[in-house]
Design goal:
Blueprint (H helix, E strand, L loop, with lengths): L2 H9 L12 H29 L6 H21 L4 H15 L6 H5 L5
């Protein structure tokens, strides 16, 4: 398949026009969700370059990017009136259920859903 055929075939599934206009709050939420994904990508990029491209890992920069990830997560919690501390507690509870003795491959393969 050539690129033009692919592009034309894929275009038939594009959402050309939204079913409805997004509210200001929905636009804000979308911005925060996209920001979270972008910042997580920046963290991943730093780790990739350190592990596979043998760049020195700048811990100060990594902390800044992780802070940006945390900021966007907190912003989403605020928009949905979710307590960030509750999210943290739920995550630890889920991990304790999945890995009661700490992480191991066997529990990962036979993962218990929390």
């Amino acid at each position: 398949m050539d690129a033009k055929t692919y592009q034309n075939s894929a275009a038939r599934t594009l959402a050309v026009k939204p079913e409805r206009e997004l509210t200001a709050k929905e636009q804000t939420i979308a911005m925060y969700a996209l920001g979270l994904a972008g910042e997580a990508g920046e963290v991943a990029e730093q780790i990739k370059k350190a592990l596979f491209h043998l760049h020195p890992l700048n811990i100060a920069d990594l902390k800044k990017e992780l802070g940006d990830v945390l900021w966007y997560a907190a912003a989403l919690c605020t928009q949905y009136e979710i307590d960030l501390g509750e999210v943290m507690e739920l995550n630890i509870s889920k991990l304790q259920t999945r890995y009661p003795a700490g992480f191991n491959s066997g529990d990962s393969i036979n993962r218990k859903e929390a």
